[in-house]
Amino acid sequence: MRHNKKKGLKLGTDAAHTRAMKKSLAKALIENDRIKTTETRAKALRSYVEPIITWAKKGDLHSRRLAIAKLGDKNLVAELFDKAAQGMWADRNGGYTRIMKLGPRKGDNAPMVIIEIVTEPVVKKAPKAAPAKKAAAPKKVEKAEEAPAEESVEAAETVEAASEEQAAE
Fold it and tell me: Would you say 98 and 118 are in contact if contact means Cβ atoms under 8 Å apart?
């Protein structure tokens, strides 16, 4: 049974060591804004650090106390909350960290990455303009002689509209 077991990656150690490792990596990441580590540790660290940054964005006393309990360093938490108060992540809803792959480590071929805290503002994409609906296709005319005449009238109208737009400019 899984009574009182934490979810997440075990990282090849017992629970206490995994918890201490995540805490240490989180402190280093917040102090330096980027660290180099293995891919598995970085992915585990991401889920550990992002809630702390969300608490920093909130900025209330309860969030500060939760962050101090998780990191164990009042000065580091104060620095993090100051960054958040300056609006560093104000327009960002999650995704505060970025993982960039470096390649395998020379000694044991472990995949290495750089994990960093994202500081750039979110670039919001302009919503794509809805394509103009095409006019309903004219009903098929039973007589073959009338169809080419209608097409030529429509072509003449589009040419006139284009020439009016150019004259307006």
Answer: yes
More confident residue, 156 or 52: 52
Q: Where are the alpha helices (DSSP H) in the chain?
A: 15-32, 39-58, 61-71, 74-85, 146-168
Which secondary-structure segment (H or E) carries 100?
Answer: strand 97-104
The pTM for the full model equals: 0.69
Band (160; pLDDT cuts 50, 70, 90): low
Instruction: Say yes or no to pLDDT of 119 above 80.
Output: yes
In this predicted model, which residue has the larger pLDDT, 135 or 153?
Answer: 135
| Backbone torsions φ then ψ of 165, nearest 5 degrees | -65, -40
In whole angstroms, give the CA distance from residue 53 to residue 83: 10
**Dist. CA 5–CA 79, nearest whole Å:** 32
CB 83 within 8 A of CB 57: no
Residue 23 region, left (φ>0) first, then alpha (ψ -120 to 50), else beta? alpha
The set of long-range contacts for 90-96, using a CB threshold of 8 Å and a minimum separation of 24, is: 90/57, 91/121, 91/122, 92/118, 92/121, 92/122, 94/50, 94/54, 95/50, 96/49, 96/50, 96/53, 96/54
